[in-house]
Amino acid sequence: MTDAGNAGAALDGQPAVVLHREALHSLVRVLKRRGRTVIGPTVRDQAIVLGELESGDDLPHGWGVELDAGRYRIRRRVDTAVFAHSAGPQSWKPFLHPQRVRRWTADRDPDGEVTVHEEEPQSVSYAFLGVRPCDLRAIRILDRVMIGGRFKDPAYGSRRAGAFLIAVECTEPGATCFCVSMGSGPAVDMGYDLALTEVLDDAGHRFLCRSGSEEGSAVLAELPRQPADDVTRAAAVDAVRMAAERMGRAMPPVDLRTLMRDTLEADRWDDVTARCLNCGNCTMVCPTCFCTTTEDVSDLSGDHAERWSRWDSCYDLDFTRLHDGPVRASQRSRYRQWLTHKIGTWHDQFDSTGCVGCGRCIVWCPTGIDLTEEVHALHREATQKGAPG
Known about the structure:
Elements: E1 17-20, H1 23-33, E2 37-44, E3 47-52, E4 63-68, E5 71-76, H2 93-96, E6 100-108, E7 114-118, E8 126-131, H3 133-146, H4 154-161, E9 164-168, H5 179-182, E10 194-201, E11 204-211, H6 214-221, E12 226-227, H7 230-244, H8 256-262, H9 268-275, H10 281-285, E13 292-298, E14 304-311, E15 321-322, E16 325-326, H11 331-350, H12 360-363, H13 371-386
Helix pairs in contact: 8-11, 8-13, 9-11
């Protein structure tokens, strides 16, 4: 878990400040004036989703959520909290790593000569307003996967390079959140331009705000603000600390990488397989799942062709199909691959876990499969089989 005492820290010793609720309107205006496309949470179609914000009014003022395995509902709150809701059905992944990206086009002229044009990465200047600590960690994980190694994805790199991140510390976790177990929240630690902690008490509705970059400081300088007072600092720290104590889920306190390695033949895999639909919802909503496949298309004349990359899922039979059939033909092998990679062998590839504890895969599984429950069951089975006598 990141340190809840981070509230109040700032870039290069610059003091944290207090923004009142109305400053969110100014923040959106300043970002748009700087040429940013502002993306943040908003209420649409009975869900809190991520979309383009035209003003601070588009944020989900006074809305919360009720979550459980396979269940999601929005609800009206009794207060005007803006960010007192946990992760919705979307992460920030689709804005940085779109579902479909054209890589190149090819055209054949009447003389039969073929010309190939490589697709230039789309130039986008995003500002992400309301990035949860778990999602902030997920973006760092995607950075490592997509642009941190020898082979870099130019489409991701272009979008990521211009992104301005405004993190919001979690003060009200959902029933499916387990970021404490994964060390990714509820406080933010690094990788943000601005960080907000929402405070509602007898002294009013306000945000403790600190900068984490030079551009963050420049944006903050354009907002109506006042020096942070001790009451607001203490309230922000307490809110994050209490959120850490109210996590709805938790992983077993063991080495998950070792547990996954040692339970590959556990009976529990059969139990979860009987419930899994292999729909791939968990990979679609996961903020770190990154797999793609390549798709070539052409027009009816055969004179124009395009190559696209699109999201793929390890639950798809064709994901590992070779000339003799799929490598992972059984449901058991596909679910096991997803979970053991996410919290086990991801370490071998990228030196970290691939799970940030956001709980989206639990909420949006149509049969309510809970990966924390599955990991606890694997741990119990391993413990029982290893017990003497």
